[in-house]
Design goal:
The chain is mainly β. The chain has one domain. About 5% of the residues lie in helices and about 55% in strands. The strands form 2 sheets. Strands 2, 3, 4, 5, 6, 7, 8, 9, 10, 11, 12, 13, 14 and 15 form a 14-stranded antiparallel β-sheet that branches. It has a two-stranded antiparallel ribbon with strand order 1-16.
Length: about 280
């Protein structure tokens, strides 16, 4: 479930301690907060994601752990890190690493290096089991993709993050190390939100999950996800950047509504003169 939360929405922020080399006069924006993950109203996990954008480079880190009711079933925890560039309304990832452990099974690991949107090096554990009905992942499925953590960055198609249908006008191609899928977004409207650190307007997008490769198309879980019409992503603008990040992700499941929502969300942007930032 920890990995699913990273993939599906990937979306949970908290300003982590960091030492980041920054060129003099580099414009730096930080996003941080805490996201609660709940099913049927019961919290079972918490996520913290730090995002630092320096000019056109980004660095993101996500930490997740069991929380609330989830502690009764698992001592699971996981973390993911991603780096890359935001250029011309495009996200271009360079590196992605994932480590997660449920406490009852072997750790899940992904190490991925990318160049110009294509996977150059990949190591995953465990390997996908070979079965006749699985759609094979080929080299073309590893080109022009985003990793699951970089996929939570929504660059605007222009010089500012407009709170209109343009925020949702996108299809995100994701490769997680095992499977390749698309997430297609559509505009549904806007909402006003408020929490201790963030208050403002968010754009509400509908979302559809479309399997491409690495999946077994006749499995019930794959069909259920592909047929789900209840997925939503609420996108919050990041300061004065032409960029959005998710405020809330939700979908209906057979266990009740799955919701990932910001409990705290902080955004800080400033002109840095120092050679390094120490938080």
């Amino acid at each position: 479930m920890l990995q699913s939360a990273v993939l599906g929405a990937g979306l949970f922020a908290g300003l982590a301690s960091a030492v980041v080399a920054v060129p003099a006069d580099a414009k730096t924006t930080k996003v941080g907060g805490v996201y609660a993950v709940s099913v049927a109203g019961f919290r079972f996990a918490e996520g913290r994601l730090s995002l630092i954008v320096q000019n056109d480079a980004y660095s993101a880190k996500l930490d997740m752990h069991s929380s609330g009711l989830g502690r009764l079933f698992s001592s699971g925890k996981g973390n993911a890190e991603a780096t890359g560039w935001l250029r011309r309304a495009h996200v271009t990832p360079a590196r992605y690493d994932l480590r997660s452990n449920s406490g009852k099974r072997d750790a899940t690991k992904v190490s991925m290096a990318l160049s110009r949107g294509a996977v150059r090096k990949l190591a995953v554990s465990p390997k996908l089991r070979k079965v006749p009905d699985r759609i094979p992942v080929t080299k073309r499925h590893k080109r022009n993709i985003l990793d699951p953590l970089s996929a939570v960055l929504f660059p605007a198609n222009g010089s500012e993050a407009k709170l209109d249908a343009s925020a949702c006008k996108r299809t995100i191609p994701v490769f997680d190390g095992w499977t390749r899928y698309d997430v297609k977004f559509s505009y549904k409207g806007t909402r006003e939100v408020k929490n201790p650190d963030y208050e403002g307007t968010v754009v509400v997008c509908g979302a559809r999950w479309v399997p491409v490769a690495g999946h077994r198309p006749h499995k019930v879980s794959v069909k259920t996800m592909a047929d789900n019409r209840t997925m939503e992503a609420w996108l919050a603008p990041v300061g004065d950047l032409p960029l959005f990040v998710p405020y809330r992700i939700s979908m209906e499941t057979n266990m009740g509504p799955l919701v990932v929502e910001a409990r705290r969300l902080r955004m800080v942007g400033e002109q840095k003169q120092a050679a390094a930032i120490n938080e």
